[in-house]
Every structure is written in C-alpha cells, then in structure tokens.
Amino acid sequence: MGDLSVKADSIDIKAILALKADAAAENPDAGSNNVPSEVSKFIQKPSNFKGFYKPTYNNSFAGFSGLIGYSTPNGVRLELEGSFENFELKNSNKCTLKNAYKYFAAAAKLKDANNDEIDEPADQNNENHNKYYYVIKNSNISAAATMINLCYDFTSDALGNGEISPYLCAGVGASLVKALNMPHVKFSYQAKAGVNYFLSNSVAIFADAYYHATHDNTFITPVIHKPIKFAANAADANNKFTDDL
C-alpha cells in the first residue's frame, strides 16, 4: 500500500492532516445539521489537526485461503482459490482519545503554502465565515478475493526427483475490498511460485510465495463531518471524494 491521497470533485484539497495526539474537545453547535452523532467533539476544532496524515497498517495475521483444483498428467493445473485478509489500522500518532486516530482532515486551505495546519477564520463562532476542511474516517483494510489460477508443475521426470516438484501460477479474479469504511469490488491479479513435496502419489505438502494486487486502488469515500462553508459558491453541497491508497 502506498501513501494515501485525497481528491474532491469541486474542491482543491491542499493536504490531508492528522489529529494531534493531545487533541482537545470543543462543544459543537447544537443546531448544526451536519454533525452526525458518531462524530466526537474534537474533530470540530481545526487546530486539532496538525502534521501530514500517513496511515500505517499491521500485517495480516488472521487471513486464510483455500482452493480446489484439477491437475493434468502433463503438469498443467487449474485452481479456484478463495482468500481473506485484514490489515488493522495503527494508532501511529498515539492519540489518547478513543478512536481519534481513525479521523483525518482533507484541508482546502492551509495557513501558508508549506504549512501543515488548517487556516482558521478570524471569528470561529460566526457560521458565515469560511472553514476550510472536511473530516474523513479511516478504517482497517480487508480484502476477500476469488481467483482462477493457471499453474504449471515441473514434473518429477523432468527433474529426476520423485518427491519434489516446483510450480508456477498466474491468476485473475475479483476482490471485495473494504477501505475507509466502504466496500468496493476490484479486478485482481496474482502470481505464485512454490514447491510440492509428495508424501505419496496423491498426497503432498507445499510452500509458496505470492504477489497479489488490485488493478485500481482508488476508492470513493463518504465525508463524516463538513465544516466547510464557502459563502461565494455551493462548493459544500455535494462533494464526492476519491481516495488513492
């Protein structure tokens, strides 16, 4: 997974910023209609976001896969494979507030061109003043894949060894990827290389390494909180956000 980037269809996003570890809560406007109940008070304070947001994830240790297949005498093998992996989002900023590390800001205006802080209006209590950020909630990344693999087993006769048989595979399929709290279906491809050790004519144990990827790592994501208010246009009304992982 690469660095996260965010684009909006009608807002120029300058940077994505992380919540500070010592983020402080602020009382929300009780009359606001764009503050869902799940959103904590701390994300409504622009000064709580500082530093560029670079999410990191734990390796998938709870994943699994299984397959069925058919092997021909000439070494060609066809497989149907299913797998699941889950990559847990890390609390990289060591935020003390519960679940605060999951939120980040897509900032439309910074204090200066090279800064990592959101520009704040002079009168933050005035709803007519511009506020220059959206808040998006991150999540674990999970992927459930179904693949069709075409493999070739290097036969024992070719190697002069009756027990060990290396193999190569290439596969294509589809993955249901959940990222930033939204599911997406993506075209997937993979390559595998491994070795079989035959215990008998019909039983073998194997070990392999593989590379699995999706064709497109962009995701449409919902906005959790929309404090932006551009008095001069309707930019706040219907923005669609695309994230690239």
Describe the 3D structure:
- The structure is a single chain.
- The chain is mainly beta and 245 residues long.
- It has one domain (5-244).
- It has 1 helix and 13 strands; from the N terminus they run ββββββββαβββββ.
- The strands form 3 sheets. A 6-stranded antiparallel β-sheet has the order 4-5-8-9-10-11, with no helix packed on it.
- A hairpin with a 2-residue loop joins β9 and β10 (182-198).
* Span of the ends, CA to CA: 6 Å
Q: Low-confidence stretches at least 5 residues in length (pLDDT < 50)?
A: 30-38, 230-237
Helix content: under 10%
How many H/I helical runs? Answer: 1
Q: Which whole number gives the mean pLDDT?
A: 79
> How much beta, percentage-wise?
35-45%
Evaluate the radius of gyration. Answer: 25 Å
General form? elongated
Structural class: mainly beta
Pfam family, one: Surface_Ag_2
Organism: Neoehrlichia mikurensis
Protein name: P44/Msp2 family outer membrane protein
InterPro entries: Msp4_OMP-like, OMP/PagP_B-barrel
Can you describe this structure in just a few lines?
The chain has 245 residues and is an all-beta fold.
What structural keywords apply?
245 residues, mainly beta, 13 strands, 44% strand, OMP/PagP_B-barrel, Msp4_OMP-like, P44/Msp2 family outer membrane protein
Please specify the SSE layout and strand pairing.
Layout: E1 5-8, E2 15-19, E3 49-52, E4 64-71, E5 76-87, E6 103-107, E7 133-137, E8 141-153, H1 156-159, E9 164-179, E10 182-198, E11 204-214, E12 218-221, E13 241-244
Pfam family, one: Surface_Ag_2
InterPro entries: Msp4_OMP-like (IPR002566), OMP/PagP_B-barrel (IPR011250)
Protein name: P44/Msp2 family outer membrane protein
